[in-house]
Amino acid sequence: MPQTPPVTFEKDITRDLLSPLFQTGKKYYFMLAFLIAVALYVVGVWGYQLYAGIGVVGKNRPSFWGFYITSFVFWIGISHAGTLISAILRVVQAEWRRPITRCAEAITTFALICGSLFPIIHLGRAWKFMWFVPYPNSRYLWPNFQSPLMWDFMAINTYLTGSVTYLYLPMIPDLALVRDKSTGWRRSVYSVLALGWRGTEREWLRLEKAISIMAILIIPVAVSVHTIVSWDFAMTIMPMWHSTIFGPYFVTGAIFSGIAALLLAMTVIRKTLHLEKYLLPVHFDNLGKLLLTMSLLWFYFTFAEYMTTWYGNEAAEMPVFWAKVSGPYAPLFWAMVVCNFIIPFPILAIRRLRTIGGMAVASLFILVGMWLERFLIIVPTLINPYLPYNYGFYRPSWVEVSIALGTFGIFTLLYFLFIKFSPIISVWEIEEGRHLAEAGASHEPAVGASLSNHVSAHLPGNV
Amino acid sequence: MPQWGMTIDLDRCTGCEACVVACHAENNIPTVGDEQAARGRAQHWIRIERYFEGEFPDVRAKFRPVLCQQCDAAPCEPVCPVNATYHSPEGLNVQVYNRCVGTRFCANNCPYTVRFFTWFDPEWPSPLDEQLNPDVSIRTSGIMEKCTFCVQRIRRARDTAKDEERDLQDGDVQPACAQACPAQAIVFGDLSDPDSKVSRLANSRRGFRLLEELGTRPRVIYLKEAGE
Question: Which chain A residues have a beta carbon less than 8 Å from that of B141?
């Protein structure tokens, strides 16, 4: 090995990025108490639903699905922010990914947790949800592997497992760092979590390899998850659900809303944790351009979908089409177009408007718009079935509204706790980036070797 | 093995809804009350769809009794994640109440909108609870239900035939709706027996199936109104 002088973690990086773990202000506890109250409220409302019967929701015949499935699709969509974006940026070795990856991956994990609650909350008999699990039993009763809901169950479990692994792997060196900086019970907890990381050359090489394998594996998994979610609709024969473009349409929408969520989270984190030195305008700007691309793609898909439906003029589809475009759902439909395209497009396309604040506003609109999009895909089809005698209407009950809104609180709560658990910006990856930048483009060493030489030398615990 | 099927003669149907009442009594279908009914939760395994044709004063009301069409290629079956709905060898589209977890996916994929969800535990104020049919299970909150072609009557008829040491004959099985229909518009029987009444009617030139273009292959055959 060529001998290179050991580089130490710069004091300020460690201090800046680790300080939220060790210092907690009054404001944090106040917010935490509020978020826990929200979470308890959601649990309470769900308990009421279980006790009183699923009838306390606003669903009916023919609108058998409503806010719960909308929220499910929405949250699974948000989950595409993290893992997918982080994985793509890692695979193409985009340097600007470094401060973004961890807060993106955390969004994935927590959004998936929120999203996967909904199919269970939505069940008529939620206490039987384990019948989705293919476990051996004396009656040879298996789940139905033909059902798109079964594929959902499999895909989401795979994605959750993969995402947690993918979040955890790059966290190991940072967990070791926290271990070595802390004392008492915290030290013992982090000792376990750091898996005995010592920062040897071999460990770095293996970690680097494991991260690249996961980054490549997780991309097809992420794409498949939202494709399968879209198949909950596309596999049916219902008007305006049975559409071949739903797979890519949903994946596009998912990445679209995911980036918006990521931008919003980054804005908040940057402000509240004072990370202006790490989350630079260039990071926001790059993500903003990505968001612009997705907004255009979303518009293209939406246009293609509605244009072909309208031109095809099929008897069963037209009532659904008109219900959305000029009927009872027209205000929501046009609000969706405004939120997803009319407002974000100029903000993101004009450089002068593409500021951090501007993009946060655009992202907020996009999140509202994408929620509406999911709702408008689900409900208008259901209330306009084939036989006109059965046309209906859907109005959510307070139970559904509480739980749908409450999961935003649960998501924020998980994120809040995570900020205290791990540095929200990967310390070692920032450090690695800085080193690579210093090494310059003249001679580029293999990533693994450079890491083992430099980062391992200074990581606490390496003797 | 019999292949159960039904014909409904629209020429005979007067829209009196006797079939609806008979079905409620036979299958322990609860009445949900006006408030729930207004929210779209009324349960009628068979219903009379009423459509109007023409402009006032030349208006004609058309009646169409609609129940589960017991499709041979039923869209509701493959989508159930726990196999709570499946196809019996006799062509019935069977709903297993005990197995249903209430995803309501089946109801969403039914083009005839004939599946009903039990939103609350049913209640029968006394003494109505004493008239429940002991052959039919009560469905609790959170599960899907629908027309069974009166499967309990099919079973009973088969048992009776066995006791009398004979084969099932045409007319042995009559669902509640067919039995109650004063105009005898509804005929039930074995479609695999070419001599059965239902087979002969099903082959009538007036015969058609609901939303035939979807390819669901229903077991309920409607007979068009002829005298126009």
Answer: 53-55, 124-125
